[in-house]
Amino acid sequence: MNWSLSDLMKHKEPLHFNENLDLKEDLISRTSEILDVNLVKVDGYAIKDRDAVLISAKVTGAIVVPSSRSLRPVDFKLDFTVNEYYVEAGTNLDRFEATETVLPVQDDQIDFSKAVADNIILQIPMQIFSPEEQDGKIPMPAGDDWEVISEADEKDAQIKQVDPRLAKLKDLFNSEDSDPK
Predict the structure, then answer these.
(1) How are the residues of the chain apportioned to helix, strand and coil, as percentages rounded to the nearest 5?
(2) What does pTM read for this prediction?
(3) Average pLDDT score over residue span 119-148
(4) N or C: which end of the chain has fewer CB within 10 A?
């Protein structure tokens, strides 16, 4: 999805687009966190806004990412909106809010497919688990002399476990209180 900024600026009416993008090769080459990508549907408008073009699009699809715990493949549904302003390089950006995404355009070309791919990478959560891992149906990983435990189990273990070097100290104050001086 490539457009010329100058062509979009000439449109008086919003330009509607509805396309399926094959971003698999691009996304897999850019990050190891994506194992597979289905076709990504992009439906939106390019709207002239004074000295800028606002491209607003709804992105839907699915990617496959590794589970944070077991590295098993997990399907992750994509459903988000992209709102980006494109302006000529050197344009005064004071009129835009700090929360708005404003991108200067070099050589009059907008590659919106790259913007969609960038936003897909931003959508990947820090932790993702398969439905079985979320339900506790798959045990936590373990090996020789190690195991992964939940935060709740860790807190319980810390309460129950007393360092043997400190075990004798627990009676120290009891013996001082009973010892008259």
Answers:
(1) 30, 35, 35
(2) 0.74
(3) 83
(4) C
